[in-house]
Batch of 2 targets.
Target 1
Amino acid sequence: MRTLDSLGEVDGKRVLVRVDFNVPLQDGEVRDDARMRRAIPTLQELLDRGAKLLLVSHFGRPKDQEPEYSLAPVAERTSELLGVEVVLAPDLDDVPDADVVMLENIRFQPGETSNDPELAERLADLADYYVNDAFGTSHREHASTAGVVEFVEHSAVGLLFQSEVDMIRQLMSDPERPFLTIMGGAKVTEKIGVIDRFLDLADKILIGGAMTTPFLRALGHSTGDSLCEDEGIEHARKALERDDYPNGKLILPEDLVLAQEFSDDTEVRILNGVDVPDGWMQLDIGSRARTRYVAEVRDAETIFWNGPIGAYEHKSFAAGSLAIAQALAAHPGTTVVGGGDSGAAMRAFGLADSITHLSTGGGASLKLIEGSPLPGLEALSD
Ligand code: ADP
Ligand code: MG
């Protein structure tokens, strides 16, 4: 992985920095700039070293060049964060010679997502150096995240990208033990590769969220109307078998919180057990499971959490995720959270700054753990 230092002298040079500024807007303004602030150290270091910046990011999934997908509000916030003027360049043919330029939404260019070499070369021609700090997009093989590297002479990862990769690699190679992982969220099929790796590398794996349902089904329990991804059941069955459950590393909740709908003002039932009756859904872990899971967090030295362990968006089903989040925040060891919704939960609980590392790339960090290639990283590896 080539780092910023490897670029050497950048004074007076134009550096194209691929950032992931795909942030939520509200009323034409950036609503949450957490992701942007994480890339500021890279931009600041390059500016301090005398470089001129050309910032490139995608924003949403435009079909055409719809104005609501313009990066204009993002350019404005970047200017506030850096304390310098940021000029928005409408397209590649019209890039002004300012100190900091932001190119309009790169997905307005038809060749971006298809990784068209012509677009990659045009991007490369706009700068002397290329830096990728968009870890959250590094699992995509797009012109601005991967293709461009071939056409520039000097390229490197930014500080955020580097810290993300270093953290995951450290977790996977030499974690302080016991190493506990907590896997929740919705889709087992998406995350089974990660669970498989953790069956090798972690000491314990707590299961929560909708992810629990296929595991319960694989064990022969009834799950009522709980959200259940059917292809997940076979994956769960294999994982349980590989793990020699219940004598292995996997731990499932022993009680559940049930409701009939996803809502805050619906009747809630506590199930002392895991056989969900017809008409009901499991939407959170119960209090005994919560106590057990929090105790497991306390007993571990290194903890990785991906995926909310309940439908945390509703207060009635947030207790499990909140208890885990608080236990992580209070933990003195290494605490890492990856995943879009798990990160959002940490922020919603106001605990995002109390853990060791909050990943800006849910999909990318899972790919890295799983051992799948990240095109954006491969392009910048020696
Ligand atoms: P992440 O983005 O952190 O990887 P996922 O996208 O896999 O997480 O899953 C997040 C979603 O899972 C949330 O919208 C949450 O409401 C939902 N969820 C969690 N637990 C349950 C559950 N028991 N039943 C239904 N949905 C759930
Ligand atoms: Mg998600």
Target 2
Amino acid sequence: MRRIPTGSSGGATGWWRAAAIYQIYVRSFADADGDGTGDLAGVRERLPWLAALGIDAVWLTPFYDSPMADGGYDVADYRAVDPRFGTLADFDRMLATAHGLGLRVIVDIVPNHTSSEHRWFAEALEAGPGSAARKRYIFRDGRGPDGAEPPNDWPSIFGGRAWTRLRRPDGTPEEWYLHLFDPAQPDLNWDNPEVRAEFEDVLRFWLDRGVDGFRIDVAHGLVKPEGLPDMPKGYELSRPDNREMRRPYFDQDGVHEIYRQWRRILDSYPGERVAVAEAKAATPARAALYLRPDELHQAFNFDYLGAPWQAPVLRRIIDASLQANASVDAPTTWALSNHDVVRQVTRFGGGEPGLRRARAAALLTLALPGAVYLYQGEELGLPEVLDLPEEVLEDPAWERSGRTDRGRDGCRVPLPWEGPTAPFGFGPVGTKPWLPVPEGWRRLSREVQASTPGSTLELYTTALRLRRELPALGAGTGGIDWLSDPAADVLTFARSPGFACVVNFGAMPIRPPLAGEPLLSSAPVAAEDDGSIRVPPDTAVWLRAAAAA
Ligand code: GLC
């Protein structure tokens, strides 16, 4: 059994450079106490399954004390476990079990904003304009007569505007405060040294407990531009994929100083503690700045995550990502989904075609050099749940958008584990989960898939095993060598020594441009009389390719 080295004996292995990291959305993973919400004891019980899947680490979404206005990304106390999720003792037990199984544990840190129920925000409201307590957040007077207009025109990411005006108990209006997300998530003022010191202390709190790293929420948002200027002209007219990055409050140069300081803290602990940034930047080159040697270890690759199922687009993104990251000697990360996006089975077309593409995409992703993030349930081929009843929707985007955007709950439906009826072992018998689990998910449950040859679970388990065993995979020693044409409907690349991956995006079967023994395929491949194979549409194949490199 692999064990995590603890204490000062942990040498520099660079474990994170090629790690397979599994995202646990704690609310929806496993519910040990049957209150309908997943919890840390549930995570602990199910960790052996993840070890068997063959991952290296887990990332846990927030389980801190929270009123749950945004699923826990609204933290009221950064050093406490919310009773829904358990206790600090449950956390310690979970961590010890994970380490005993050879799994590292990364936790989420949410530094851009607190919950409006955080002690600091209560103090700010109480203390009033001009007070030191208000300077921990971003309070401003409004514009126009009586300050009735917000200080600037920034939209909230969840819809509506990014400012809310306070009222005194007698109803008279006073200052506005900034919230890039929900009004229950006031933005912190990172120009204030007290805010910086507090988060450094929070990092140490969890590092002292033994966590292996952090996933930094909205890492690109902490520092706001001087003077809080309005949105750029023509912003609403820009293409949706560019629009996000034209927001003036993202990716300011000032964020890097914060992460350099955090890196010093991480490096002061033994055992290679790491940080991965949720950092959105306009170009791969800007994103790579977060990964300079004295900053963070990894950043999510949102270009890859958002890409359509099209070979030329994926190829362009893969090349640009590898190139940008090479410039700072950082591994690339690859992910097909997370708790904020529509699940890939549905994104790629839904139903059988969507599942077929998602399986092919998994083999493509797991064959690329660098680290990979898997979102819970993708190893089961779960689709997005598109028909959740309106009354169960909890994502703040639903109400903030005037009930036009159903939000992200459809990818957050609890996991089906085992048993004949919903919620399929998510909690003890009789558990009513916070989101209903479709009855049809029985055939997708871990139990059913574990005994079904060719299941998606089997595909992921085998792929993860080969990824560890084959010297060409994981970090590998080199990059990838393209064997297909950039404009073609196929991606074929070789990795040294002796490996090739072929993904057919076209409508017709193709013959791989090189000979090789198939190691694994996302759908059955046919062998011809001459021993060559045909790769059907929407299928990926891994080959042992003697002459590949
Ligand atoms: C990140 C999280 C998302 C959350 C937002 C605000 O994007 O992934 O779930 O709503 O930050 O904290």
